[in-house]
Amino acid sequence: MSITFTDGFGAGTFSLYCNGEARQDILQHKINRVRVIRRADGYYAQFCLDVEHKEPGKYTGQVIGIDLGLVHFYTDQNGNKVDCPKFLRRSERRIKQHQRRLSRKFRKGIKPQSQNYHKQRKRLGKVHLKVQRQRRDWVIKLARCVVMSHDIVVYENLQVHNLVRNHHLAKSIHDASWSLFTRWLDYYGKVFDKVVIAVPPQYTSQDCSGCGYWVQKTLSTRTHQCPRCGIVLCCDVNAARVILIRGLEMLGIEWNNGTLGHKGTASVPSTEGTLGEMSTAVVDGQPDTVSAVAEPRTRIPCP
C-alpha cells in the first residue's frame, strides 16, 4: 500500500505499513486530510477520516467527581485514589545520561556536526518519545475506564498554563498530563453518550462539601475540618465532593452523601450563552439534553 502526494511540495510516493483494520478504514471511508509527521523513530501518516465514532455504553447509575493532584493523579468522592505514574521522573536518570553523552559529542563552531553526534541525538529523542507514549497510553486507558464505568463524570477545569508558572511544580504538572486526561474524558463522553462536565476550579478546596461553609486552607493542609458542621475529611476527598455537587447542580440533581435526588427537571431550554450537551438520566438510563455551563462562584472571606 502506498500514498502519492500531488501538492506543490513534491514529496512524491511513499510506502505505507499499517494493520488490517486501519487499512480497511482508509479504503472504505472518505479521507478529508492526510498529514505526514516526523518522530524520533521515523515518519508517520495521519489520516483524517469522515467517520462518526460511536460505541454502545452501559448505564450503571454511578457518578464520579474527580479532583486532580500531583501525589495522587485523581481522587474521587468516595476516597478512591489513583497514583500518578510519573513516567518522566522514572526515566529522568536515563535521559540525563543520554544528554551528557550528546553534550560530549558536540563541537562548538563546527557545522555540520559529526555522525556520532546525530546518532546520539536520535537515541535521546527515542527516550523522550518513549516517555511521551507511555504517558499517552496510560491516560487514554484510564479515561476510557472512568467514562465506561460511570454515567456522569465531573472534573475541575484547571488552567494548566497558569499553574506551570510555578517553577517548583512545573515539571511535575507537565508530567501529570492533566490536560491530556481531561481531553480524552470529553472525547469518550461523546463516544459512549455519557455526561462529562467541567466545572470551574475556584474554591473547590476551600468550600465544605457538607454545608458549603468556606474554610480557608493552605496547600500544605491535607485535612478538611469544618467549624460549622464538624465534618472531618481528607482535603482531596472534600474537593472531589464539592466538584461533584457543582456538576450535579447543573443537571438539576441533588447529591446527599452518595444518594441522588432530582432538584427539578434535568431538561433546561437552551438560552443565550449556554451550551447544549447530551447528558444521561441516571434513573431512566436514557440521554437527555441539558445545559452544561457553570459560572465561577464568588466568596466573601470569613471573619
* SSE series: EEHEEEEEHHEHHHEEEHEEEE
Report on the biggest sheet: 5 strands, mixed
Helix content: 25-40%
Spatial order of the strands forming the largest sheet: 7-6-5-8-9
How many strands appear in the DSSP assignment? 15
Radius of gyration: 24 Å
- Uncertain spans, ≥5 residues at pLDDT below 50? 265-303
Please tell me the overall pLDDT: 81
Q: What is the global morphology?
A: flat
Structural class: alpha+beta
Tally of helical runs: 7
Give the amount of beta strand, in percent.
15-25%
- End-to-end C-alpha gap: 72 Å
Total individual domains: 2
Summarize the structure.
The chain is an alpha+beta fold and 303 residues long. The protein has 7 helices and 15 strands. Helix 2 (87-105) runs antiparallel to helix 3 and helix 3 packs across helix 6.
How would you characterize this protein structure?
- This protein has 303 residues and is an alpha+beta fold.
- The protein folds into two domains: 2-49, no CATH class; 63-83 and 138-291, no CATH class.
- It is built from seven helices and 15 strands.
- It has helices at residues 20-28, 87-105, 115-148, 160-163, 170-176, 178-191, 235-250; strands at 2-5, 12-15, 31-39, 42-49, 63-68, 72-75, 81-83, 152-156, 195-199, 223-225, 232-234, 253-256, 259-262, 276-280, 287-291.
- The strands form six sheets. It has a five-stranded mixed β-sheet with strand order 7-6-5-8-9. Strands 1-2 form a two-stranded antiparallel ribbon.
- A hairpin with a 2-residue loop joins strand 12 (253-256) and strand 13 (259-262).
- Helix 2 (87-105) runs antiparallel to helix 3 and helix 3 packs across helix 6 (178-191).
- The longest helix has 34 residues, at 115-148.
- It is flat and about 70 Å long.
- The termini are far apart.
